[in-house]
Inverse folding.
C-alpha cells in the first residue's frame, strides 16, 4: 500500500487549500464559456474534422430519470411517459443527421459513451433504436469502446442483454452510498442486495469492465457508515470505482437545498471520509488514478495512467484515443478542433432548436494558443501528476512563482525542470492545477465553485 502522507499534515493544510475551485474536466471550465459561440462555430469545426479523417469519440446524453436524487448535479429530468423518450429519440436522430451533414462523411469513431440522466430509463426497444442511430452513422473501429451509465434500481437482465448485443462492453452503476440513513437523506433508496444482484447480472450478461460510482461528503455519512459502503463495494469486485466528492452547489442546483446543510460533513470530516476511501481501496489492490478514479492493476485505465496516456474530459478519466469529442443530446458538450460547444440544456428549447434544423449550441469557448498550452498542461497534471516546466512556454517563470508556496507546503517538487505532485499533494490536486490557471482570479468573483477537497 502506498503511504499518502500523515493525515495530520494534510489536515493542517486543509484550512488553507479547501476552497472553491474547478474540477478541470475542461479548460477553461464550462461556467466561464461565452454565449457568442453558436451553431455556425461547431458546424465549421465539424467540417474541418470531417475533412481531416481524424477519429471521433462520441457522447450521448439521456436526461431522463424516474426520480430526482437530492444531491444530483447532472442534467436530469423526471418523466413517467415512454412517449417523451420516443420523441427524444426522434430529435436525437435529427441532431445526429445535422452532425453527420456537417462532418460531410461517415466519420471514423473509436468511442461511444452514454450518460445522463439515466440511459437505462429507455426500454429494450428504445435502447436498441438509440444504439442503431450511432452504429448507422459512424464507422466504428473494430476495437471501439462502448460504455454506458446505468441506474441499478431500474436495470433489468433484458436491458443488459440488449445493451451487450448492441455493442456495449463497459458499464457503470451509480451506487453513491449503501447506508440506509444516508440514502434517506439523499432521496435515493437502494438496497445493497439489489446492487449486488445487478452487479452479478451485468457480469452474467458479459460486461467486462464494471465501474461503481461512490460519493463522499454526503449528509449523515460517518467514517463507520462509509467504511461499510466501501467494504461492500470492494466485495463486489468492480474493475473500477469512481469516488466523487459531493459538490453541494444549491445556488446552481436548487433541489440540493432540500438537503439539510447541518447534516453535511464539514471540511475536516469530508477529508477523513476521502482518506478512508483511498486507504481502503488501495489496500484492497485498487490503484488511485488521478483525482478520483480507482482501478485494478490490469485494467486499461490503470495501464494508461502508468504509461502516461490517460486522458481527462467531461466524462472524467478515459483511455480515449481520439482528439475530438462530439456530444449529442440535450446539454451535451463537444470539444472539436479547439472549440468547446455546449448544447442547449433545457429539453424543450433543445428540441425546438433541433427541429428548426440547427445544431443546438448555446455557448462555448474557442481556445487560443495560450489556452491550448495551458489546457494541455493542466490535463497532463491531472492525469500524470507531473509536468515538464517547458510545457508552460513563456509563462514558466510566472507559474513557477505561483507554485513555490505549494512546494513550501510539500504539495509539489520543482526539481530538474519538472513539476511533480507529491503523495501529500495528491489530496490537493485541484489546487495545484489552479496555479496553472490564468483565468481563475477573474472567475472567482463571478462564480462560486464546489470545494476542492
Ligand atoms: C448520471 S449519474 C449515474 C447514472 C444514474 N443516473 C445513477 O444515478 O445511477 C452520474 C454520477 O455523477 C455523480 N454525481 C451526481 N451528482 C453529483 C454531485 N452533486 N457531486 C458529485 N458527484 C455527483 C454520481 O456519483 C452519479 O453516479
Ligand atoms: S444521480 Fe442519476 S438517477 Fe439520480 S437524479 Fe441524477 S442522474 Fe438521475
Amino acid at each position: 500500500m502506498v503511504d499518502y502522507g500523515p493525515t495530520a499534515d494534510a489536515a493542517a493544510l486543509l484550512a488553507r487549500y479547501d476552497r472553491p475551485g474547478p474540477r478541470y474536466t475542461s479548460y477553461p471550465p464550462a461556467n466561464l464559456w461565452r454565449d457568442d459561440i453558436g451553431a455556425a462555430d461547431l458546424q465549421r469545426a465539424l467540417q474541418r474534422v470531417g475533412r481531416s479523417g481524424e477519429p471521433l469519440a462520441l457522447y450521448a446524453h439521456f436526461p431522463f430519470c424516474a426520480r430526482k436524487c437530492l444531491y444530483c448535479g447532472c442534467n436530469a429530468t423526471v418523466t413517467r411517459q415512454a412517449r417523451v423518450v420516443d420523441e427524444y429519440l426522434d430529435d436525437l436522430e435529427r441532431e445526429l443527421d445535422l452532425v453527420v451533414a456537417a462532418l460531410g462523411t461517415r466519420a471514423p469513431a473509436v468511442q461511444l459513451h452514454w450518460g445522463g440522466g439515466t440511459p437505462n430509463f429507455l426500454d429494450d426497444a428504445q435502447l436498441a433504436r438509440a444504439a442503431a442511430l450511432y452504429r448507422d452513422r459512424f464507422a466504428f473501429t473494430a476495437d471501439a469502446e462502448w460504455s454506458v451509465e446505468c441506474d441499478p434500481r431500474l436495470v433489468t437482465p433484458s436491458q443488459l442483454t440488449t445493451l451487450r448485443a448492441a455493442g456495449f462492453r463497459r458499464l457503470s452503476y451509480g451506487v453513491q452510498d449503501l447506508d440506509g440513513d444516508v440514502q434517506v437523506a439523499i432521496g435515493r433508496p437502494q438496497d445493497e442486495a439489489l446492487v449486488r444482484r445487478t452487479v452479478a447480472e451485468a457480469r452474467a450478461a458479459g460486461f467486462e469492465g464494471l465501474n461503481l460510482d461512490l460519493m463522499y461528503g454526503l449528509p449523515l455519512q460517518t467514517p463507520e457508515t462509509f467504511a461499510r459502503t466501501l467494504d461492500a463495494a470492494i466485495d463486489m469486485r468492480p474493475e473500477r470505482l469512481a469516488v466523487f466528492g459531493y459538490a453541494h452547489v444549491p445556488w446552481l442546483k436548487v433541489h440540493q437545498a432540500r438537503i439539510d446543510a447541518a447534516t453535511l460533513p464539514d471540511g475536516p470530516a469530508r477529508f477523513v471520509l476521502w482518506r478512508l476511501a483511498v486507504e481502503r481501496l488501495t489496500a484492497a489492490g485498487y490503484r488511485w488514478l488521478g483525482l478520483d478514479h480507482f482501478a485494478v492493476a490490469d485494467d486499461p485505465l490503470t495501464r494508461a495512467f502508468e504509461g502516461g496516456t490517460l486522458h481527462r474530459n467531461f466524462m472524467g478519466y478515459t483511455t480515449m484515443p481520439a482528439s475530438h469529442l462530439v456530444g449529442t443530446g440535450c446539454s451535451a458538450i463537444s470539444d472539436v478542433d479547439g472549440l468547446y460547444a455546449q448544447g442547449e440544456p433545457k429539453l424543450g428549447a433543445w428540441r425546438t432548436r433541433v427541429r428548426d434544423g440547427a445544431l443546438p449550441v448555446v455557448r462555448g469557448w474557442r481556445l487560443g494558443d495560450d489556452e491550448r498550452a495551458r489546457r494541455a498542461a493542466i490535463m497532463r497534471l491531472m492525469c500524470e501528476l507531473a509536468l515538464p516546466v517547458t510545457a508552460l512556454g513563456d509563462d514558466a517563470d510566472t507559474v513557477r512563482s505561483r507554485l513555490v508556496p505549494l512546494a513550501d507546503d510539500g504539495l509539489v517538487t520543482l526539481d530538474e525542470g519538472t513539476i511533480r505532485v507529491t503523495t501529500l499533494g495528491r489530496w490537493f490536486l485541484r489546487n495545484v492545477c489552479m496555479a496553472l490557471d490564468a483565468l481563475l482570479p477573474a472567475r472567482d468573483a463571478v462564480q462560486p465553485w464546489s470545494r476542492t477537497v
